[in-house]
Structure formats: C-alpha cells, structure tokens
Design a protein that fits this description.
Largest sheet: 6 strands, mixed
Shape: elongated
Number of strands: 13
Low-confidence stretches: 20-31, 35-46, 68-76, 81-91, 93-114
Strand content: 15-25%
Distance between the termini: 135 Å
Order of helices and strands: HEEEEEEEEEEEEE
Number of helices: 1
Structural class: mainly beta
Length: 320
C-alpha cells in the first residue's frame, strides 16, 4: 500500500513539473519533451526529483530604423501612435530616443520660428544727437489805448487839460503801451490824418506861417520810453512820425522790455488866419496803426569743432 501511494505522488509531481513548461513554450509552438519514465524508488525514504526551471521566451530582434531621408517614390505614411487619455507629459530638454516605428527627427518637416530682429544700437540716435523739440513761438501781449482826444488851439488860448493849463496849438495828453509778455518787442507805427465831413482844415508836412491864408495843421506823433523825455520840436528823429492823409510808416520807433511801459503823444502847430477864422467844425482826426514784433535773441555760437578731412595719400606710378 505504501508503494502505491509513493508511485501516485511521484506521478503527480511529474505532471506538476510538465505543466508550466508546456505553458511557457506555447508561443514558440515547441513540442514538450516526453517526461522521463518514472523509476521505482529504491526505498520509501527517497524524495521526488525537483522540477527543472522554465526556459525564458526568446527576445525578438529589433530592426534599426534607417536615418536616411525618404526617397522620392511615394510611400505609405507611418501609422500614428494611438493616443492615450490624460495629459501628455511635457518634453524634457535635451536629446531623447525616438520610439520604435516613428520616423527620425531629421526626416520630419518642421517650421522654425522667424529670427527675432534686435534693434541696431548704432541706428538709434544717442541722447546728444536727438533732435531738439520744436520751440513754441513767444506770445506777444501788449496793451494799447483804444482812443484819445486831440485839441486844435490855433489862437493859443488857455486850455485846461487834466488839471493842467496849456496854450499849445496842438494839445494831446500822453498815452501809454504796456508790454505784458515775457520777451522784448519792437513797435512799428503808421499815422493817418483824417478830416471829418464839414471840416476846412488842411494837413501840411511843415509848420505853417501863423497868419497863413488857409486853416493848416502840422501834426506829428512822438514815441518815448520816459514820459518826461519829449523833445518839444520836430527833427525827423527815429521816434517821430508825421501825420498825413496818405499815411506815414516808420519801423522800430520804440522798444518795449517785458513788463515795461512806452508812451506816445501828438505835437504840432497850426496857422491862425484872421479870415476865414477857425470854427468848431474845423476839426481833425488822427488814426494810428501799431505793429509789434519780438526781439530775436542773439544766436548762440556753435562750439562744435568742424570735422577734419582725412589726410591725402600721395601715390606715384613707376614705369619701366
């Protein structure tokens, strides 16, 4: 009975040994070797023979992918790898090994980004060469009087003007300009003599005789920076301007500094005929036109040295 149990155990051990070998060798379709015939054990104390280790399946050979560019002949495009769910890992910098079945990187078309163009530092102007901003022209602000009053006193009667008694033949109270700007200005003036309707007065360009046959008026305007500096007579100076019906023009009759005042006043003489005598309707009118211009500052000398021409190299030709 003990011998039959031992043979049965030995048979089961041999079957357990042969089962994994046949399962692992199935991919190669190899025929398992027949088990060795069981031999009776010499005695009841012998142990069963250990099963042999299973053989590992052979590793298939890897065919290297050619790195040469594809030929001109059309070929079937490579089958894209199946996509897997989930976020794809970001590629790490550096060279990586291409997976099997994917074309090499040298054969895949790629679009390289356009090279960035950096500004040329030599083309941009330096701070010293940057163009100066356009300066705004100065603003001229001068206050001028709107009107005034002139009195013809041919017979030299005493006339009270602004609390002062005068016997002048042409009486006019001085009027002023004021420069409200920030730059000096020059004054150019034009003077016109006007006769209202019904007046028999006549403008002349020289002082008339006192007992002339006509009612003549000689009038001029004088400009001064000092109200106490009137000359008292006509000399044709640069600051004096005759009054005529045609109009007289003179340039730069006065200079006004910023926040300074200038003055003008009418002077003259008139004839005093006894017949016909001057009447209240024999009046005169004076119209003055003013033009102001800014005084240009003196030019700043350019201290930049002029570029020097490179030295000329003399060359001589020798003939044999």
């Amino acid at each position: 009975m003990k011998r039959k149990l031992f043979c049965l155990c030995l048979s089961l051990a041999l079957l357990a040994m042969l089962w994994p070998v046949s399962a692992q060798d199935e991919p190669e379709e190899s025929v398992p070797e027949p088990p060795a015939a069981s031999q009776p054990a010499e005695d009841s104390g012998s142990q069963p023979t250990p099963p042999p280790e299973p053989e590992s399946p052979p590793v298939p050979e890897e065919t290297p992918v050619p790195l040469d560019p594809p030929s001109a002949s059309p070929s079937a495009p490579p089958t894209p790898a199946p996509e897997t769910a989930g976020p794809s890992p970001s590629p790490e910098p550096g060279p990586s090994q291409e997976p099997q079945g994917t074309p090499a990187a040298s054969t895949m078309p790629s679009v390289s980004p356009a090279p960035s163009v950096s500004p040329d530092p030599s083309a941009s102007p330096s701070p010293s060469e940057s163009p100066a901003p356009d300066e705004e022209p100065p603003v001229i602000r001068v206050s001028v009087p709107n009107n005034g009053r002139v009195i013809v006193n041919p017979y030299g009667m005493s006339v009270n003007v602004a609390g002062t008694s005068s016997t002048d033949q042409i009486i006019h109270q001085a009027q002023s300009f004021t420069n409200l700007g920030e730059t000096p200005v020059l004054l150019t003036a034009t003077a016109f003599g006007e006769l209202p309707e019904g007046s028999h007065a006549v403008f002349v360009t020289a002082p008339p005789p006192r007992q002339g046959p006509q009612r003549e008026a000689f009038v001029y305007v004088e400009f001064q920076n000092d109200p106490a500096g009137w000359s008292g007579s006509y000399t044709g100076a640069a600051n004096q301007l005759l009054v005529t019906p045609e109009g007289q023009w003179k340039d730069q009759v006065l200079r006004l500094e910023p926040e300074a005042q200038g003055y003008f006043r009418l002077f003259g003489a008139a004839s005093a005929p006894s017949s016909p005598m001057w009447t209240a309707s024999d009046t005169i009118g004076v119209r003055l036109v003013f033009d102001f211009t800014c005084v240009e500052p003196p030019p700043v000398p350019d201290e930049t040295p002029a570029p020097q021409a490179p030295p000329m190299e003399s060359s001589s030709e020798e003939t044999a």
